[in-house]
Amino acid sequence: MRVILAQPRGFCAGVVRAIDIVERALEKYGEPVYVRHEIVHNKHVVDTLKNKGARFVEELNEVPDGAVTVFSAHGVPQAVVKDAQARGLPVLDATCPLVSKVHNQGKRYAGSGRKLILIGHAGHPEVEGTMGQVGAPVHLVQSEADVAALSIPLDTPVAYITQTTLSIDDTKSIIVALKTKFRNIVGPETTDICYATQNRQTSVRELAKVADVILVVGAKNSSNSNRLCEIGREEGVPSYLIADGSELNPDWVRGVKAVGLTAGASAPERLVEDVIEALGRIETVEVTQMDGKKEHIEFRLPAELRNDRAPAA
Questions:
Q1: Which helix or strand (DSSP H or E) is residue 29 part of?
Q2: Is 144 assigned a catalytic role?
């Protein structure tokens, strides 16, 4: 059985930075360090950090006074930031810089008097964070039907921003619908979308050309991992989302010549290796890697973790 690895796959720079922030905070300040929401959407990552002393909470009222607090990679609403400031909590912000960029775009558009439209998934923590960061009403759309249902007057100046875990392909038809409906509309350049989302989706489309079945390593609540699985199916290849090798169903790959293997942006490489081992227990495997974009982007850590200063209250 050939196992073909997608390139790129797995951790993106924003996820690496977020995990580094929690690990370095534990090293510097000792345990426990409190993290609001899962630092990234992957149970294995979260469990590993729990074992090192991180404690994950959904609300700030679960954090004791004075405890070092980390905001997850998905970002948080301004109300959470202000609550932390009011309580004097020492905060480390692990929000992905690309998510912060979307927050700033939204603020600029709203500040210039435009009605703001966010393309994203309702209930996703990044979307909730973005809607709570802008400081103005935000209209959320998930489909062309949502665009048609918008009750904003057609000559209103509007602007759109997008959830970072959606690619150009994901948002293309919705943006076309918005530009068709509204006469005065602006939005970010396509170069502003999350490089990691686009690269991983492009690699799955390439993988689908050579694989008989595609396995996506990622968590069920990971938006970008689910989308990779959907893209495999859209390309006509049976595709399955699995957390690790224990979830591999042998019937999916029995008699198959080529298995495509990729991982969502919050899935560590060790889980990819775990799936390869599980495949090897079914049949002898030959592992190859596709050519693809090599990512060299790194995001800087907060200043508090680059030197000896205490985290800002």
A1: helix 13-29
A2: no
For residue 49, give Cα distances in angstroms to 93, 97, 171, 301. Answer: 17, 21, 34, 18
Q: How far apart are the first and last CA of the chain?
A: 55
Structure tokens at 153: 């007057």
DSSP string, 134-196: SSS-EEEE-SHHHHHH--S-TTS-EEEEE-TTS-HHHHHHHHHHHHHH-SSEE---GGGS-HH
- Planar angle of CA 194, 15, 213, nearest 5 degrees: 75
Two tokens, residue 175 = 């943006």
| pLDDT tens-place string over residues 237-281 | 999 999 999 999 999 999 999 999 999 999 999 999 999 999 999
Instruction: Please check the confidence at residue 312 and state whether its pLDDT lies above 60.
Output: no
With beta carbons less than 8 A apart as the criterion, state whether 158 and 183 touch.
no
**What CA–CA distance (Å, rounded) separates 199 from 181?**
30
pTM above 0.85, yes or no: yes
249/308 Cα distance (integer angstroms): 49
| Given the residues 38, 126, 128, 304, the one annotated as active site | 126
Contacts (Cβ under 8 Å, ≥6 apart) of 4 = 207, 210, 211, 258, 259, 260, 261, 288, 289, 290
The confidence score (pLDDT) of residue 166 equals 86
Q: Which of 106, 102, 24, 101 is nearest to 70 (CA)?
A: 24
Of 233, 202, 234, nearest to 215 by C-alpha is 233
The identity of residue 1, as a single letter, is M
CA-CA distance, 258 to 213, in Å (whole number)?
Answer: 7
Residue 242: CA atoms inside 13 Å, Cβ hemisphere, count? 22
Domains defined for the chain, CATH in brackets: 2-10+195-289 (3.40.1010.20), 13-97+299-305 (3.40.50.11270), 110-191 (3.40.1010.20)
